[in-house]
Amino acid sequence: MNQLARAACEWAGDMIRVNCVAPGFITTPMLKPVTDNEEFFKQLKLRIPLRRFGEPEEVASVVAFLCLPAASFIINW
C-alpha cells in the first residue's frame, strides 16, 4: 500500500491526490484477544513509542483532515 501511494506521485500533474493511512494497533473488538492476554499485551506495548494502542477516533480524525482542501499540499513519504 505504501509503495502504491508513492507511485501515485505520477498522478499529481492530473490533480489526483492519493493518501495512505497505515496505523498500527487500534483498540477495536478485533484486538480483544490480544488485550485479554495481559503478558503479551504488556510486551507488545513496549514496542510502541507511546506505550499505548491508538483509538479509532484518532485515525478517523486524520482521515477526515486528509480529505479536506486544507490538506491539499501535504506530501509525506
Automatic annotation (TrEMBL):
Q: Which InterPro entries match?
A: NAD(P)-bd_dom_sf (IPR036291), SDR_fam (IPR002347), TR (IPR045000)
Give the highest taxon in the source lineage.
Answer: Eukaryota
Write out the GO MF terms: oxidoreductase activity
Pfam families, per this entry? adh_short_C2
Q: Which keywords does UniProt give here?
A: NADP, Oxidoreductase
PANTHER family (alphabetical): NADP-DEPENDENT MANNITOL DEHYDROGENASE, TROPINONE REDUCTASE
Name of this chain's protein: NAD(P)-binding Rossmann-fold superfamily protein
Q: Which organism is it from?
A: Rhynchospora pubera
Cite the source lineage: Eukaryota, Viridiplantae, Streptophyta, Embryophyta, Tracheophyta
